[in-house]
Amino acid sequence: MAAAERRAFAHKINRTVAAEVRKQVSRERSGSPHSSRRSSSSLGVPLMEVIEPLDFEDVLLSRPPDVEPGPLRDLVEFPADDLELLRQPRECRTTEPGIPEDGKLDAQARAAVEMYTEDWVIVCRRYQHLSAVYSPITTETQRERQKGLTRQVYEQDASGDERSGPEDTEDSRRCSGSPEDTPRGSGASGIFDLRNLAADSLLPSLLERAAPEDVDRRNEALRRQQRPRALLTLYPAPDEDEAVERCSRPEPPHEHFGQRILVKCLSLKFEIEIEPIFGILALYDVREKKKISENFYFDLNSDSMKGLLRAHGTHPAISTLARSAIFSVTYPSPDIFLVIKLEKVLQQGDISECCEPYMVMKEVDTAKNKEKLEKLRLAAEQFCTRLGRYRMPFAWTAVHLANIVSSAGQADRDSDSEGERRPAWTERRRRGPQDRANSGDDACSFSSFRPATLTVTNFFKQEAERLSDEDLFKFLADMRRPSSLLRRLRPVTAQLKIDISPAPESPHFCLSPELLHVKPYPDPRGRPTKEILEFPAREVYAPHTCYRNLLYVYPHSLNFSSRQGSVRNLVIRIQFMAGEDPSQALPVIFGKSSCSEFTREAFTPVVYHNKSPEFYEEFKLRLPACVTENHHLLFTFYHVSCQPRPGTALETPVGFTWIPLLHHGRLRTGPFCLPVSVDQPPPSYSVLTPDVALPGMRWVDGHKGVFSVELTAASSVHPQDPHLDKFFTLVHVLEEGAFPFRLKDTMVSESTVEQELRTSLTTLRLASPEPLVAFSHHVMDKLVHLIIRPPVIGGQMVNLGRGAFEAMAHVVSLVHRSLEAVQDARGHCPLLAAYVHYAFRLPGTEPSLPGGAPLVTVQAATLAHGSGRPTSLYLARSKSISSSNPDLAVAPGSVDDEVSRILATKGVDRSHSWVNSAYAPGGSKAVLRRALPYCGADPRQLLHEELALQWVVSGSAVREAVLQHAWFFFQLMVKSMALHLLLGQRLDTPRKLRFPGRFLDDIAALVGSVGLEVITRVHKDAELAERLNASLAFFLSDLLSLMDRGFVFSLVRAHYKQVATRLQSAPNPATLLTLRMDFTRILCSHEHYVTLNLPCCPLSPPASPSPSVSSTTSQSSTFSSQAPDPKVTSMFELSGPFRQQHFLAGLLLTELALALEPEAEGTFLLHKKAISAVHSLLCSHDTDPRYADATVKARVAELYLPLLSLARDTLPRLHDFAGEKLAHHQPTVNERDYYGI
To answer: How far apart are CA 1078 and CA 242, in angstroms?
Structure first.
């Protein structure tokens, strides 16, 4: 055919391009070295070299958002409401706050009240939930999204009958479109009988002449038909094992509870009913030999029996009428017993005589024993009238809880509902003591078992000489033996019905241990259920979150054997005195059952005719918020005359002793063996201890200790640790300026308090772990206060920054070590993470947040107050300056003013800081900085600045402790920076001016030193290197939301250069490359990843990123008539301009390209990590509602254009195109990676 007669479309065929494609494929098949991208000169800059990023803030200044049309404006800059401050009200379990009502509080009590009542202050990044960090795409979520996809039906998938039949049904077709669908058949056309098919209709439009533009439009319209909105939904979910960026927000601190069981006392019946009987319940752990709960007192007497005590009782408070209790058990064990003790009104005779009628008489013999019963009732009535305020031991029994749980059966304890399962990336958790206790013996779990109603019929009479807890533990241990000696004893016959069941989640009518109403409490007139305070068998590491200030008094024994006279029926009266006058006894002693809620005095049970009685009594007291030197416990010993005699008083005082509750400012607790005075104590006795032999006083047994008693406090105000007590005392004294004051045996003045405080900071590491963890929020707040607000002593400011920072490092290590069993997958301590996220705040900068709403948002910037993203950031600047865009419309002050403010912010010796390090400007590892003068100086010290400085200049021991928990200090710095910006209204300040240059220098030095630690420790301590690597990456990712992003990019580049230098000499580069890949993935998980890549700069190509084949071949002038535009072609490969503009995307795709190199180290692992990172990001973009618009989605897709050339170059290594060799050779890339690409 002649050239002139050629058809028109033949002129448009690009033969040169086709030839070049064939030549390129030929080179790739032959394995030409030119295919290697590691050091390709065509890219301009080798991939191994990290290119210098653009100055992000300068680029934004030169390209305002209104340049971009429509929705693309949102890609230019972070939204104005990106950073916000939330006030989350602290959860209060009770309807009353429970804080003390005292008008005057000392510094310690005031600090505790503030700590337990202030709301949580949370710094929130509003769009962070859209990133893969907190919104992971899992197999479950992917499956849910696939349910809404349209079924794709293709011609070759349908049979011949289906294609020709007019009534095809959807269910009979073989379809595709979901990974779960049946795969297509192979070669469907091969089974067709072409001769039996009807002729196809002609296509008259096939030979019609059409303009290339019309073909492109038609092809584009066809491509958009039935196109799924989320393309990546068709792919499998990203590999969760590689999701190093995923995090979970910590739970707010809350009150600790173990497994809770509900015990209801239903009825108590004896063979004879002649007098009131009172019950006591408590839990005991035989293995630990410890009482693990406070007492629960109950009264099941009939109204007629209660009437016998009407002369001694007041109107009972409703809280003392409880018949059910909720016990908490943190460490379930097969050795836990529910011990039930019974008491009766004191009467003449020992315990055996009093028990005899109950052991002999039977209900069936009532008529026979009528006279005896009448006589017993009359005697009981007389004793109740005269001695009704006194009790005596009667009987006891015990219920083995493990038997109850095992016999009741387990209610599917091992089943795990689908909805409660956590993703695999949050399940990694070390087992601690509680886990081992819970899993060591399944029969010991009290969290799920069928409720059981018990009828206890046998009680053992109490023995006067064996009333102590030590004797009780022997009895309980004996009860577990088959040949128990207790079984041979004659029992006291009774019927006690109790119901035992797992406690509900939110029980109604429940009272806290402080008798506060626990929500929900529908009706105050309902009979309450009491929560019983637990005394855990072992340490429980949990911070205090509510105000609690209880004191328990346990009299153990009294020895009056040397006391002359008729001193046999001994009873001890206990009073909590605010002074020495009898009228100053405070009503702080909790009532027992059927009595007043609080009383001014309480009595021990009486052991008849015993000069050396033992006691099992427990007195529960509510401590005043402010305990002073005048507060003391007064014990008065009486002899009670059981038989009335003329001229003889009912009770005769025979001794006195006391315990001052404060000793050098500390609450006195622990065991005491006190001497007892025969005489009434003289005036001013309460300031001394009974150990002091006061002149003119007579003492029992020559001033020897004859009274054994123990004090135990359950307090969130008093630490009960000498090191914590000293630290808090010194800090509070400095706050109030009360000099001089007594600290233990020395007087501390202004001249010596500094040294005492420094010593106290050093000795904090010696504190016991349990109280340290319990008061960790207090300790951390005080250390922060010392760092940012140094105390002024004698008119001079004392810099305690270094000492407080070192103390903080050791406290964090101790807390972390104590809670090592409950670390999360990243090795983070949840208690410390919750402190930073919820509790930490800058002292003295509390925002005036409005109350009322359950969640209050404080807008620090005034650009946008709505919940959605603003449609136009640039137009909103007429109201305010963007919180993120460094708009130079803010006129800084004069140079002299700025310099003066900067120089006035800190006067700290920096001789050991970054200046002398390799990271200083001009040093061998200097980081490029673009910081302008800072115009927001603050005269006070800033926590983030001090932390960075102290970390950089710290010694080796402290630095090691900080590195072990670097994540905590990084998060603390980030929240401090955010609060500094939000509370100081500095979000309107251009990002380059938000922080001073010296702080940026410290950050640069810090990032460099931590990065160096990662590199040097990767082979010595791989686990620590992995944690440090992730912590550093998260820190830099957080900084991108707060400060100059160009500066942060320069830090990232400096870290990459560090790693690249180390790779040249590393014995195992694969490990370091793996860490760098994780580092990159975490950085790219930022919620504004697309914006950070500057997608709207002019370098981006204007054409569609995925033109069809037909539209490409129909273009008449692009590739055949002129050379391609270098700017366009550079965006299709990892060129220098692409990696410079799209810095994070360039890093990620570069990691992928290097991993796919044939000579790459650790091929399989790096393939998996690199491809998984890209896959995860693409899935995240696909589901992000911010990128739903087609034009926005096209710009996002442009960030991944180099994937096309990368896949083209890697294709020969992904698949062997020689068909005959396919069965003999394995691909060099893993099959999963192949499908991923």
So the answer is: 9
DSSP 3-state of 867 = coil
684 residue type, one letter: S
CA geometry: angle 435, 436, 437, nearest 5 deg: 90
Query: Within 10 A of 814 (CB to CB), how many other CB atoms are there?
Result: 21
Q: Report d(CA 985, CA 987) in Å as an integer.
A: 6
Could you read off the pLDDT of 37-56 as tens digits, one per residue? 555 444 567 888 888 999 99
Separation of alpha carbons 592 and 530, rounded Å: 12
Tokens of 55: 């100055």
Q: Nearest Cα to 822, choosing from 251, 431, 536, 259?
A: 431
Which of these, 1065, 1045, 1050, 1055, lies nearest to 1011 by C-alpha position?
A: 1055
Residue 471 Cα to chain centre, angstroms: 43
Distance CA 768, CA 779 (A): 13
Specify which residues 285 forms β-bridges with: 290, 336
Does residue 520 have a cis bond before it (omega within 30 degrees)? yes
* Coil, helix or strand at residue 864: coil
Mean pLDDT of 862-885: 32
Q: Was domain 549-715 assigned CATH 2.60.40.150?
A: yes
- What is the SS3 string spanning 27-43? HHHCCCHHHCCCCCHHH
Contacts of 978 (CB under 8 A, 6+ apart): 83, 123, 1042
Peptide bond into 847 cis (omega under 30): no
- Measuring CA to CA, which residue among 326, 671, 718, 319 is closest to residue 550? 718
Q: Please state whether beta strands 529-532 and 510-511 pair in parallel, antiparallel, or not at all (unpaired).
A: parallel
Contact partners, residue 137, CB within 8 Å, separation at least 6: 237, 238, 1176, 1179, 1180, 1183
CA–CA dist 946, 844 (Å, integer): 17
The residue among 463, 388, 342 whose CA lies nearest residue 640 is 388
Structural contact between residues 750 and 739, judged by C-beta atoms closer than 8 angstroms: yes
Query: Residue 800: enclosing H or E segment and its boundaries?
Result: none
599 beta partners: 589
Q: How far apart are CA 606 and CA 643, in angstroms?
A: 14
Rounded to two decimals, what is the model's pTM? 0.81
Measured distance CA(91)–CA(98) in Å, rounded: 13
Q: pLDDT digit string (tens) for 111-124?
A: 999 999 999 999 99
Sign of the dihedral defined by the CA atoms of residues 512, 515, 520, 523, in that order: positive
Please, is 903 exposed, middle or buried when counting C-beta atoms within 10 Å of its C-beta (0-12, 13-18, 19+)?
exposed
Q: What is 259-360+388-410+431-532's CATH number? A: 2.60.40.150
Query: For the chain, what is the radius of gyration of the CA atoms?
Result: 40
Taking the chain, what is the end-to-end CA distance rounded to the nearest angstrom?
Answer: 45
What is the SS3 string spanning 156-196? Answer: HHCCHHHHHCCCCCHHHCCCECCCCCCCCCCCHHHHCCHHH
Task: Judge whether 781 and 121 are in contact, CB under 8 Å.
Answer: no
**pLDDT in the model for residue 1217:** 56
Q: Which residue has the higher pLDDT, 965 or 442?
A: 965
Phi-psi region of 565 (alpha: psi -120 to 50; beta: other; left: phi over 0): left
Structural contact between residues 940 and 948, judged by C-beta atoms closer than 8 angstroms: no
**Which residue ranges make up each domain of the chain?**
259-360+388-410+431-532, 549-715, 722-827
Q: Phi, psi (5° rounding) for residue 166?
A: -80, -15
CA torsion angle 1180 1181 1185 1189 (round to 10): -170
Per-residue pLDDT of 246-303, as tens digits, reads: 888 899 999 999 999 999 999 999 989 999 999 999 999 999 999 999 999 999 999 9
d(CA 187, CA 191): 8
Tell me the two tokens of residue 259.
Answer: 């497994």
Reduced to 3 states (helix: H, G, I; strand: E, B; else coil), residue 718 is coil
Query: Is the pLDDT higher at 857 or at 1071?
Result: 1071
Over residues 451-489, the pLDDT tens digits come to 999 999 989 999 999 999 999 999 999 888 876 777 777
